Amino acid sequence: MKPGFSAKWQSLQSGFSDWLRHWLFSTDSGVAVLPPLEEMMRYSLEGGKHFRPVLYLLCLESLGQAALHGRRGALAIEAVHAYSLIHDDLPCMDDDDLRRGRPSCHAKFGEAQAVLAGDALLTLAFELLGGEPAEVAGGMAQELARAAGAAGMVGGQLLDLQATGQGGGAQKLEEIHRRKTGALISSCFSLAGLRARLPQSEVEKLRRFGLQLGLIFQVQDDILDETGDPALHGKSPGKDRSQGKLTYPMLLGLAGAREHLDRLLSEARRELAGLPLEARELSLVLDFLRERQN
Ligand code: GRG
């Protein structure tokens, strides 16, 4: 079963969409925004799977916290993700006019506007975390900043740019993926642990498991770039290969990349038992990651 079809996943997803639509820019949230930026920010926040915020909410519920308490953290994580996609699509980066099967942010609103929409989303994330209870806000902001910043996603993007056309081995590729995609997905777990006030040792276990899950997500993304149906994947197909990107199919071939994915999935299934989380829902998430087409 895919998480999209698990009743719990679906209800968290629809709760999240509701906060996004009605709460985020309301006076109740305290977030003020200029109308032209709001349109671009909404365009980029809506339309995705909302995989990361729902994962965060799932962990939080599993740790005995009401999903409503996760509203700020979930929106903060998705805001960072949305910013990263806007900047990733820019002409100076991946140069992609298509995202989620529709014009990417710069293709629709213009390049300078898209840079600013990305900046606004990144800063929004920390404004939201500033409204978390005082005893957890600082730790959560630090955790998200580390995942998104120079040692995490931005660092991974730079390594990826440097490796493009240069080749490299499995170790290099894993380092890129861990930082570029893994760190933010990992933060969905560690942020839930911090919000639930778990001890550091438990937060660390969650962080490690999240990193493994992030790696699995990206290996499947590499495979989908080669084999995915563009109508479902919503991105320009074969882009990574045409740009000379270092990917698992390039390194191991398609069959080898699928075997690697299955190995990572088996390891993750074994690790599930040692986590302070409900294993059944997470096991469905692993099924989804293997089968996803978008
Ligand atoms: C600071 C100039 C500047 C750029 C930053 C950090 C960065 C650019 C880009 C990172 C890009 C990135 C996160 C790439 C890989 C992530 C990935 C697999 C994205 C797709 O995620 P999904 O499938 O997307 O969850 P949806 O559409 O569902 O939200």
Structural notes for this entry:
The protein has 294 residues and is mainly α. The chain has a single domain (3-289), classed as Orthogonal Bundle (Farnesyl Diphosphate Synthase). It is built from 14 helices and two strands, in the order ααααββαααααααααα. A two-stranded antiparallel ribbon has the order 1-2. A hairpin with a 2-residue loop joins β1 (98-99) and β2. α4 (71-89) packs antiparallel against α6 (111-129) and α13 (248-272) runs antiparallel to α14. It is globular and about 50 Å long. The two termini are 16 Å apart. 41% of the residues are buried. The model has no long low-confidence stretch (mean pLDDT 93). The structure holds geranylgeranyl diphosphate. The site of geranylgeranyl diphosphate has 14 residues, from α4, α8, α9 and α10. Geranylgeranyl diphosphate binds next to α4, α8, α9 and α10.
List keywords for this structure.
294 residues, Farnesyl Diphosphate Synthase, two-stranded antiparallel ribbon, 2 strands, 71% helix, binds geranylgeranyl diphosphate
